[in-house]
Design goal:
Keywords: Coiled coil, Kinase, Membrane, Transferase, Transmembrane, Transmembrane helix. GO terms for molecular function: kinase activity. Pfam families: His_kinase, Reg_prop. By secondary structure, this protein is an alpha+beta fold. 17% of the residues lie in helices and 40% in strands. The protein contains nine helices and 73 strands. A five-stranded antiparallel beta sheet has the order 1-3-28-27-26, with no helix packed on it. Helix 4 (774-789) packs antiparallel against helix 5 and helix 4 (774-789) packs across helix 6 (821-838). The longest helix has 51 residues, at 721-771. The protein is elongated.
């Protein structure tokens, strides 16, 4: 919203030759200017369209105003010229723009229509300005230009026209009022003489008060302005109803506005307001001194709009006419008011201010000023109470004073320092509360640590005292102060007290309002109960059942009987300030003292605007495109695009308090969503039809009827059902191909696995065939036979048992794909032990195991290590003439088992030299089987095995003899 400047322009009322005196009152006026968004500070004209917008014509375009935002239109937006001098609104909702180039144009359905985009407006203006506009009862628009030429707009075309044989002027339209309706309220003319209407009567005398028939004619017929006189015009007679000279207006009248019983007159030098003119009141106020008034407009809500030459637009809200204002600009000493009261007999109003200044306003509205004693510094008047006949009791910071109404004189009754409150008992006894003591007749009672804020009497002898630490009770007999009960509410910081019909009302500093009966809390009211604030500044009881709570945010009115809130009164309702210090009520008039002046008004006529605001759609955005307002939108789907709605409400009073609610059919949340923003985005809408409802309300109004927008998001081709069907079919085909490929892969893998298993079986069979050399078996049996013959039956039996166990282990292992390392070592131990016996213990052996092997369970393919050990014994150690040594070493290397078989036999090369052909074939077959098994394992699980045979003598091991065989075996490792 544009920042609004509030200007207090006070009614400086004229003292007329009749000696009439009128009340001095204030009127609050808002100003809108360029900094608020107005197109130019010079404004020629104003009009309200059918929707409720206010339009302003300026030299640099037109401004459309909703109460919060200006939308400016220039030539680049479609105007025929930026210099717009007059505006008119017809019955169809079109706003017509009159420019100096004479080309007709209008705004309708969110578009400016001109001859360039609307063929019905093609016309040659011939350089003449459109001076007046009329609308006939068929809806045709008639222009009268500055050359008295007539131009007709039928809605289909614009043509020059001629009405009758006689020359046409403005009087032709005025006297044919049954056909033509003027689209302006008044006409500035040079003469009243219509030469073609000789029977027309002209009544130049201006009666006052106006007869009823003249008032009716003014409200029904157009007004003609000639110099500074006003006439009600009809074809039968022209009646003068206002003579400016008789009212002290010497300037030429440029424009007028009829506002109920009030008359507004604009001149090149000032604005004049005649309150109650049509009801016979003679009140004249001169406002906006030295302002050139260019036009006046009363909108549908009753607000008055004043356009000026060079000073922007002024607005007087309708409700400000119900309020009267006083401050230091129109009679009071100060704008900061602390107390207010009225003498019930004479009606004199007393206004207490700072610096000990008291203003009085008598029944004739004469304001007088009195200065109380200020010798001791600050001396604000904090309380004013009716006392005795023609006397008012006045409590100031530095003393208690008596003011005599009849003699208009103030006198010091009692010097008191830091006075806080004064109370009068039913019998007329005075109690004074200072910051640290309560002073009654003949005695005083003090408080040591706490600050006293208020005092109220129960009767002539008992009273309550409010302090910063809570509530105290006192009476004249005991002359002491004590806490009256145990309720925790009694310890709240008290600001003011009122005793009403057996109930004590306590206004606190920050906890709202408490009600006590018999020293117990029976009611607590706070902001949770809709109080305007919890910070009390003063309590006032009007004597007829209503308690007024003055706070820092306005006034709350409480029903004493029901102890409920009646209403709140704030600056939003018309107060000069929310910082209220006191209230006074008498005979229907409510006075409210604020830090910015005194507001007073008829309490039962305070305006309450319950009409909801008109809501409108500004535009819609989808992606990078913007669309004009409408009720239905059909849009093509865009990825990652946000649908955004910008709307507003027409509210000229308190536009910042307008709130909105919207409901979107696709929204998963239920109910209405409330927001203060006028822009609502909806990102990621999918193709569908949506319904958006938007409504608004302003201060104290109901919700408006919702504006309904239907939005259809159309799918792209790839979102259509047939496209989706094709995509699904293609997807299914692709899945079928993938599944077929997967199945084929699985089948090939199964075939490979089968082949692997078959090949492994073959290799294991070969390994089994090659693992145990037939010579070993035959020799073992021979050894058993030899032991039997040598009568070594026991040793023969042990040998035969170990041999049988070894054969059984070999057969068991041959049926497994993997065996544990422990099983392999046990098998090798038994095999080597048998070989030692068979070879008469010609060698020793040992197993070397890495410690890390103990942390895991290791599984290896069977029948891989034993053929190597067998070769080492048979071809390395057995042919050796001396005893030999065999070492089997096992080490873990990640996912491989390193195994080395080291012997100190005759060596690999020498052993090959003495082998027979059969033995060579057996050895080569066993090693080739091991290599092939390692290769197959690698092809299936990726682990690389290795077999390497090293002749130590030829391979750099010094003079060492023997063979070292190294093998890396793929394993399965488990914790």
């Amino acid at each position: 919203m544009p920042k609004v400047r509030y200007i207090f322009l006070w009614w400086i009322l004229l003292v007329l030759s009749t000696g009439y005196h009128a009340a001095a009152q204030g009127l609050m006026i808002r100003n809108y200017n360029v900094k608020d968004g107005l197109a130019n500070a010079t404004v020629y004209d104003a009009v309200q369209d059918k929707d409720g917008f206010i339009w302003f014509a300026t030299p640099t375009g037109v401004s459309k105003f909703d109460g919060k935002r200006f939308r400016n239109y220039l030539k680049k937006d479609g105007l025929t010229d930026n210099d717009v001098v007059k505006l008119s609104a017809d019955s169809k909702g079109r706003v017509w723009f009159s420019t100096l180039n004479g080309l007709p144009s209008f705004y309708w359905n969110s578009t400016i229509h001109t001859g360039q985009n609307d063929s019905s407006l093609h016309v040659d203006s011939r350089g003449q300005y459109m001076q007046y506009m009329f609308e006939d009862y068929a809806g045709f628009i008639w222009f009268l230009n500055s050359d008295n030429r007539i131009i007709q707009y039928s809605g289909r075309k614009t043509t020059y026209d001629k009405l009758g044989a006689k020359p046409t002027d403005v009087f032709y339209f005025l006297r044919n009022d049954t056909i033509f309706k003027p689209l302006q309220q008044y006409f500035n003319l040079n003469t009243l003489k219509d030469i073609y209407n000789p029977n027309q009567k002209i009544l130049s005398s201006c009666p006052f008060p106006l007869p009823r028939n003249v008032i009716q004619r003014i409200r029904k017929n157009p007004v003609v302005i000639i110099n500074n006189n006003l006439y009600a015009y009809s074809k039968e007679e022209v009646v003068c109803f206002f003579n400016g000279n008789e009212w002290g207006i010497k300037d030429e009248i440029s424009n007028i506005c009829v506002d109920n019983d009030n008359l507004w007159i604009g001149t090149p030098r000032a604005l004049y307001y005649m309150k109650g003119f049509f009801s016979g009141e003679r009140n004249l106020a001169r406002l906006l001194e030295n302002h050139y008034i260019t036009s006046l407009l009363k909108d549908r809500d009753g607000n008055i709009w004043i356009t000026t030459f060079g000073d922007g637009v002024y607005n007087i809200p309708y409700k400000n006419f119900y309020f009267n204002y006083l401050d230091n600009t129109n009679g009071l000493y100060s704008h900061s008011i602390f107390s207010i009261a009225r003498d019930p007999k004479t009606g004199t109003l007393l206004v207490g201010q700072n610096a000990g200044v008291l203003n009085t306003i008598d029944s004739n509205n004469r304001i007088r000023q009195f200065n109380l004693d200020t010798t001791s510094g600050r001396n604000s008047i904090v309380t004013i109470l009716p006392y005795k006949r023609n006397e008012m009791l006045i409590g100031a910071d530095n003393g208690l004073f008596l003011f005599n109404i009849a003699r208009q004189k103030a006198s010091l009754l009692k010097p008191v320092k830091t006075l806080k409150d004064v109370d009068i008992t039913p019998a007329g006894k005075i109690r004074v509360a200072t910051k640290d003591q309560v002073i009654s007749d003949g005695y005083s009672v003090g408080v040591e640590d706490d600050l006293i804020t208020s005092v109220t009497s129960i009767n002539d002898s008992a009273y309550y005292v409010g302090t910063s630490a809570g509530l105290l009770y006192g009476n004249d007999a005991l002359r002491t102060l004590r806490i009256p009960g145990t309720d925790s509410a009694l310890h709240r910081s008290v600001k003011d007290l009122k005793w009403i019909d057996g109930h004590l009302w306590i206004g606190t500093s920050d906890h709202g309002l408490y009600v006590l009966r018999n020293n117990r809390v029976v009611k607590h009211l706070s902001t949770a109960d809709k109080l305007v604030s919890d910070i009390c500044q003063q309590l006032y009881y009007d004597g007829i059942g209503r308690l007024y709570l003055s706070t820092n945010k306005g006034v709350s009115v409480i029903d004493v009987k029901t102890q409920t809130l009646i209403r709140n009164i704030t600056s939003n309702d018309g107060l000069m300030s929310d910082d209220t210090r006191g209230v006074y009520y008498q005979q229907g008039v409510l006075y409210i003292a604020t830090s910015n002046g005194l507001s007073y008004f008829l309490d039962d006529k305070m305006p309450v605007d319950t009409m909801p605001p008109a809501i409108y759609l500004n535009h819609v955005r989808y992606g990078d495109s913007t669309y004009l307002p409408g009720k239905q939108f059909v849009l093509m789907f865009q990825r990652k695009a946000s649908f955004e709605v910008e709307f507003g409400a027409i509210a000229y009073d308190l536009p910042d308090l307008v709130e909105y609610q919207y409901n979107f059919s696709s929204d998963t949340s239920s109910g209405w969503i409330t927001t203060m923003s006028n822009i609502v985005p909806f990102p990621g809408l999918q193709p569908d039809t949506y319904q958006l409802q938007i409504r608004a309300r302003k201060y104290r109004s109901n919700w408006s009827q919702p504006m309904v927008i239907t939005v259809t998001i159309l799918p792209r081709w790839y979102q259509q059902w047939w496209a989706r069907g094709i995509l699904i079919l293609l997807g299914m085909t692709l899945v079928a191909f993938i599944l077929r490929d997967v199945i084929r892969r699985i089948q090939r893998a199964e075939m490979r696995k089968t082949e692997y298993n078959r090949r492994i079986a073959e290799l294991e069979a070969k390994a089994l065939t090659n693992q145990m050399n037939p010579h070993f078996i035959f020799n073992s049996l021979n050894s058993v036979q030899h032991l039997i013959m040598e009568k070594e039956e026991k040793q023969a039996l042990n040998f035969l048992a170990d041999f049988a166990t070894l054969m059984r282990q070999m057969l068991n292992n041959s049926r497994k794909s993997h065996i544990s390392l422990e099983e392999e070592i046990a098998f090798l131990n038994r095999y080597i032990e048998l070989e030692k016996i068979r070879f008469a213990n010609v060698f020793t052996y040992q197993f070397v195991l890495q410690d890390d092997l103990k942390d895991y369970t290791i599984y290896i393919p069977p029948m891989i290590i034993q053929p190597i050990v067998e070769n080492a014994i048979k071809h390395g150690l057995a042919p050796k003439n001396a005893s030999g040594r065999l070492e089997v070493k096992l080490v873990l290397r990640e996912d491989l088992l390193y195994c080395s078989v080291d012997d100190d036999g005759i060596g690999w090369d020498r052993a090959n030299e003495i082998k027979s052909g059969r033995l060579v074939k057996h050895e080569s077959t066993a090693l080739s089987v091991i290599r092939e098994r390692l290769q197959i394992i690698k092809s299936f699980n990726g682990n690389v095995g290795k077999l390497e045979i090293i002749d130590k003598f030829k391979s750099g091991f010094g003079n060492k003899e023997g063979t070292l065989v190294e093998i890396l075996i793929p394993i399965v490792k488990m914790l």
